Here is the input.
Amino acid sequence: MDNRLKEKYVQLDKKNIWHPFTQMADWVNNDPNEPLIIDKAKGVYLYDVDGKKYIDGVSSLWVNILGHRNSLIDKAIKAQIDKVAHTTFLGLTHLPAIELSEKLLNILPQNLKKIFYSDNGSTAVEVALKMAYQYWQYKKEKRTMFLSLKNAYHGDTIGAVSVGGTDLFHARFRSLLFKNYFTMSPYCYRCKFRTKDIPFPQQAKNFKVHNVQVGCKGECIKQVEQILIKHSKKIAAAIIEPLNQAASGMIVMPRGYLTEYAKLCKKYDILLICDEVATGFGRTGKMFALEHENVWPDFMCLSKGITGGYLPLAVTVTTNKIYNAFLGKYEEFKTFFHGHSYTANPLACAAANAVFDILKEDNVLEKANDVIKHLEKELKGLLNHIRVGNIRQCGVMVGIEIVESKQTDKPYNCKLKIGAQICNKLRKHGIIIRNLRDILVLFLPLIITKREISKIIRAIKTELDEL
Here is the structure.
């Protein structure tokens, strides 16, 4: 693109647009680089208006699992747009949504039987919270609280923020939120009860409640039970991101933690919500993260990768037990009064159907597991770097925690913006990733190659050496 035209668009952006999760003072003042204007994409690559290509190392915010411009997804959307782009789902239905519901239920835990469509991860969580809350009203029990984990992130709408435990994102809104119970996060690296070095990958050893050999001697799961012993009759549901608290810096749970959390919910008659918005659709090496520990929740929230990163779509899946509690005569008004204008959008459902077909027919997960092993091997080479405090990997999801002192785990002063600096410098290597403070986050497409992974890790090492 001509430099004068490019500059015009950059200035219009800075004048008119407020970007998410962005300090706009930095953005407007060119700190440290001019904004990248993305023009097109193909496979795992994004191309700017000058034609330079970049590996999309965060899958365009964790949604693009099969690469950009996948020919089969393109074809499915084009075919659907020739029929109908959108119609209300209130009182009507359509084939793409019906077909997608069947495909989903065939691969989800067998106790999950009913699908409610919405349009993003946050709304999927809102649906689950409201369903759980309303369910206990019909059971004549006053359960108005929820149990969540510190460092949790479930979205940015008010209900989802209420069960969020990431102070960086949520602390300013506390007075707006309904009160809940929060239990300690299984953040082994920063746990005050930590007794020994954390193995890599973090799930390398089994986690046994009250007899744990990794990290905190089971304090995190003990605290869950302590809360449930005291307050279970007040709690409508417990919510968890299976295996990985992604938005908090890829906090990977010790193996067995999810199992014990689910067992405690069952023991104390607490509904369990598994938020698989980030971890679903192959990110962990299995279709869903909860498959690693054979957990069957009462609710499951899905979004992001469901359409391959093409269009907004989300689902909340639940059991017949929950669904049946809402059935009654019209005049009882037991209906679940919740919906969205773009619920079950036909274009999005068509894209999702294509994604499921590709995952099944192209053996994507089998190929991805080979890539995941290569990623683990490459990350081990970074583990001893003087500036790397901890590396957490869960499938194609990675958090590399940068520290000033490896001996004391001392973090850098946040004013230095070390994580942001590294991410900006990686652009000259043709790589786009994001940071959460001083944690470098990789969220790789399932179709990425070993060579592309090696390129990313080499570039990160180069920039770490320059610190």
Remarks:
- The chain has 15 helices and 17 strands.
- The first helix runs from residue 3 to 16.
- The radius of gyration is 22 Å.
- The CA atoms of residues 327 and 334 lie 7 Å apart.
